[in-house]
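Predict structure. Input: long-chain-fatty-acid--CoA ligase, 614 residues.
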Amino acid sequence: MLVWILVFAAVGLLVLFFRNPHFFQDVQFVRKKLKTRSRILKYMQTNYSLLDRFIDAEKEHPHKPFILFGDETFTYRDAEELSNKAARVLLQSGLLNQGDTVALFLGNEPVFLWLWLGLVKIGCSAAFLNSNIRSKSLLHCLKCSGARTLVAAEELQDAVDEVLPALLEQQVTVFILTDRCQTADVKSFKDKMSQASSEPLPKDLMSHLTLRSPAAYIYTSGTTGFPKAAAISHAKLWQLACFPSLAGMNSDDVIYICLPLYHTTGFLGFASAIDRGITVALRSKFSVSQFWNDCRKYDVTVIQYIGEIMRYLCNTPKKPNDRSHKVRLAIGNGIRADVWRDFISRFGNVKIREFYGATEGNFGLINYSGKIGAVGRDSFLHRRYFPHAVIKFDVETETPLRDSSGLCIEAAKGEPGLLVSQISLMAPFSGYMGDLQQSEKKRLHDVLRKGDLYFNTGDLLRIEEDNFVYFQDRVGDTFRWKGENVATTEVADVITMLDCIKEANVYGVEVPGHEGRAGMAAINLTEGLRFDSAAVFKHVENFLPAYARPRFLRIQSSFDVTGTFKHLKMKLVAEGFNPNQITDPLYFLDEKDKSYVPLTVDTFNLITSGQIKM
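Output follows.
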C-alpha cells in the first residue's frame, strides 16, 4: 500500500512539474521571503538595527576590508572609528537634537558612509540629496527634509554658494568637506573630523530610536513638481538590506557599487554588505572603460546595474579577456532582453537577477528564474502572503477602471495594467516627508474589496500566461533616462523661465537602442520673440542635470489641451522626433556645438542608427 502511495505521489509531482515547471522555484522563493519577514519581525521586537549589525560585524572581523575605494582600503574597524569621528563633529557642533535630519550633498565616496553611520549613532537621520540638483531643486529638497544642517562635498561648493543666501535666511548651517573654507558663514569639516575622538559613543544617544524611526530620506521623482523625499525607516532599511540575499548574494561575496549612494539601488548595496558582513568595492561613478578592470582588481563577485550600464558594457569593443573575471551575479533593473542575451553571450555565465521595486514602495519582485526580459513571477503563493494585483487602468484619464460596485477590475493575462500592492502593518507605506497630498495620491481605496487599501506603484506591468511578469511603462508625467526618473513639470518650469518660451509641454520619447525615454519638449514661442537656440542650450545646461535636459525640441504654434487645460501628450509621444512625420520645426541638443541645432532627416537617421551617441 505504501509503495502505491509513493508511486501516486511521484506521478502527481511529475504532472505538477510539467504543468508548472517553476513550481518548486516559486515555493522556494516565497519560503525565503517569509523567512526574511520573520527575521525582520524578530529585529523589530528586539529593536536590532542595521547599525547594530554593523557593530557586531566589526567585532566579529575588525580587520576585514569593508570599503575598497581607488587604492585605499578601509577595514570594518576603520569604518567604526571614522564614523565615530564624523558623529562627534556633528554632535559637538551643538546644532543637533535627537531625531534631527542632516542633508548630505555628495557623491560616491567613503565619507558618505561614515556620515550616515555616524548620524544613526547620535540618534539622527540623513537626507540623501542628488548631487546633480541645483538652484530651486536643491532648496526644495533641503526644505522638505526639514534639515537645518547641510554637509556638502568640496567639488559641490559652487552649487552651495549659488543658494547660500537662501540657506542662511532659512538658518541652515553648512559644512564643506575640506580642511579649510574661505567662504564666510560656511564651516570646514575634515579638519574637525581629523581632530575628533574615535572612541565609541554613548548608546543612550540613540535610545529613542525604534525600527519605525526614519533612517534616511531618499528622493524620488513624482508625476508632478519637484522630487519627493521618501521616508526610509530602519525596518524598511532591513528589507532593502535583505533583498540581494533573496537574489542569491551570500557572505563570501564582494559587491561592486558604481551606482549613486544617494539612490536606493546604490545604498541598498551598502546596506546588504553590512547585513552579510562582506566587502564593498566602491567607485565614484560608473566608468565603462574601467568597469571590468575594477572587477578584476577587487575580485568582485556581485555587480549592481541599471539597464544603461549593461548596454554600455555590451557596446564596448570586444576584448580577449572579456570573460576573465569572478563576477557570478548581477542584480538590478531595466535591462532589455536583447542586451541581456548579448551580455551573457559575451561576458560568460553571470546570473542576472532583474528586480522590480520603488523607493517608497512596499512591494518588490525578483526574476529568480532567470527568464530573459521578465521582472518576476506571479504565483498564488506569492499573492497569498504578499497581496498585490494588476488592475485595469485608463492611461488617458490616469485612473483605475472600476466595476458597477466601485471595485477595481483585475487585468487579464497579457493585458497591461496598474500594479498595486496591499498596505498593511507588514507592508506599510510611510509616504513622503512634508507632502501629505502626494502621499495620499499613492493610496488606493476599495481596490478588490470594500475597505481595503493598496499602494499605487504608478507603473504598468503585464502578467503573461506563463505567469512571468513584465514591465510595460510608467504612468503620469515622468520619463526615465540614464537611469533617472525625471518629472516633466519640473523641466517645463525651467524651460519657461526663458523669455522666448511661453509654454512647454515636456514628455519622453523612445530612442532606438536606448533604455527609457529621452526628454522632448513641445514649446510655444512668446509673440514677437525668436527662438534663441544657443541661449536655450545654456539655460538648460545651467539649471538641469544632464539626464533631465530635453534632447529634442518641437516648436508648435498652439497646444492641444483637455477640458481642464492639461496638455495632451499621447499623440506627441507617439509621433516622437521623426522629421518625416512632423511638419513642425524640430531641434536636437548638440553638446559639441553647445546649441540646439535643426533636426534634419539625416541627423534623425544617424541618431536612430546609433551613429550619433546619446
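The mean pLDDT is 92.
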